[in-house]
């Protein structure tokens, strides 16, 4: 899919942040731990990652009823099974989370190999470690990962902090027989959302400190639940940054402010003086003072800091700052492929090496033809196209649509004139 623009856009109006991609796809997998009906609210149904996962789950035999008007999804996983699956090619990373529901019912699962963005080393060895620690046998076959056994409580001690591993361990341990202790867990706001949902279904989960989780397994499936997905903190940051540099007035609603305090501190330190209330952010031209945006240096890391998924938006913001900014990414140092494409809008302003991006601002963005490399990089390129003088084109924008619910509709409502074509 391609995005084409003819000139810079000034965004005006209000936009509501959708349910978080990194919560919704995990909670969806966890909803399969029940034979009862589960209702998910504030669910981002138009995300490409969600569409792919819904299609695969339907092919597994689950009953799904979606309502676009109310952004609700009803899930009934009673007949869930991998037995009817013939195509295991799934373009998302969270395939491993589908194992828990099948293991609890049948004692075996055929897990598609993870897909998703290619931004460095993101293997699945820690998921194999989880399944083995909980009593299963694992075999890596050409088309899928075979996991066999009845889940039993165990000790899981992650060698590194891992979001995906923590999520997989929680989902499997919730339906295992016996107690499970998870050490060095990485508890992000989205993982907190998953824990809250599992508790709503009847799971017994206790969090001690920031990285130790104790789970008392049910030894079987969980109950029904109605649950609302948390707002997407990465989408919220995207709108705040884009609103700040577009020259218009933007009200960003449904912002999870309590989950993004450190990123917002960095924005204020860079000279953005925006107004907030309990769940909204107001952006306008007066948010940037007479001295303009200030250059900055920051490093991405674990929550509550600036996470790697936010890296490209601080790079984009730095293009408008008065001086040299440096953004380090120690978590995913190879997350720099998009910089070459973004630089087409800002010649001579960007330099990238593994783990470090240098930005020399301020610069006036010019129209360019760029190609998407990953989800967040694609969105940064779209933002550049919307702020560039002259015609622009961004290819492969379906990558951005993997993480931004109803993006074309939201942009149109803010006055953006753009053409989205296949």
UniProtKB/TrEMBL annotation:
Pathway the protein acts in: Cell wall biogenesis; peptidoglycan biosynthesis
EC number of the protein: 2.5.1.7
Domain annotation Enolpyruvate transferase: ranges: 9-411
Domain of life: Bacteria
The keyword Hydrolase appears for this protein: no
Localization, UniProt: Cytoplasm
InterPro entries: Enolpyruvate_Tfrase_dom, Enolpyruvate_Tfrase_sf, MurA_subfamily, RNA3'P_cycl/enolpyr_Trfase_a/b, UDP_GlcNAc_COvinyl_MurA
Family, per entry: Belongs to the EPSP synthase family. MurA subfamily.
Protein name stated in the entry: UDP-N-acetylglucosamine 1-carboxyvinyltransferase
